[in-house]
Specification:
rod-shaped; single chain; mainly alpha
Length: about 150
């Protein structure tokens, strides 16, 4: 009976050792899996940081380029403004009409203003008296009636 007890005891110890080994192996496998996940997360974080750094560097370059373009535009506008001011100061603007025509236009404007001063004045598009094609129409009709 001693042998059977020893054999039973060995079998029980073997079964217990098997389960303890399986438990430890599972735990070790979970730890390895967690370490791998942690490393993947760390790598993803490093990649994200690198992407953000690249994005910020690209944005900085674009902002600097935009700033340079703005400065170029501003200097171009200032140069053009200076050229226009210099041209204006160098030569007086050539009149559209001759001197005599300008004087006649100004005189007619003054007359028109004086005519328009009263509230009963006709609008500028009406002519007082007879004018144009219909100026002599009554005379032609009177001659035809007389004959």
């Amino acid at each position: 009976m001693g042998t059977v007890i020893w054999l039973g005891l060995i079998v029980i110890v073997a079964v217990i050792a098997f389960f303890i080994g399986a438990f430890v192996t599972k735990k070790q496998f979970k730890q390895d899996e967690l370490k791998e996940q942690a490393e993947q997360a760390q790598n993803a974080l490093e990649q994200y940081r690198q992407d953000v750094a690249d994005h910020l560097a690209s944005t900085s370059k674009l902002v600097n380029k935009m700033k340079d373009n703005y400065n170029q535009l501003l200097s171009h506008v200032e140069e053009t403004n200076q050229l226009l001011l210099e041209d204006r100061n160098k030569e007086p603007a050539a009149p559209y009409f001759s001197k005599e025509t300008t004087e006649q236009l100004q005189a007619s404007l003054k007359e028109r203003r004086s005519d328009r001063s009263s509230a009963e004045a006709q609008p500028a598009d009406f002519v007082s008296g007879e004018s144009g094609l219909f100026a002599g129409e009554n005379k032609v009709q009177e001659r035809s009636k007389a004959s």
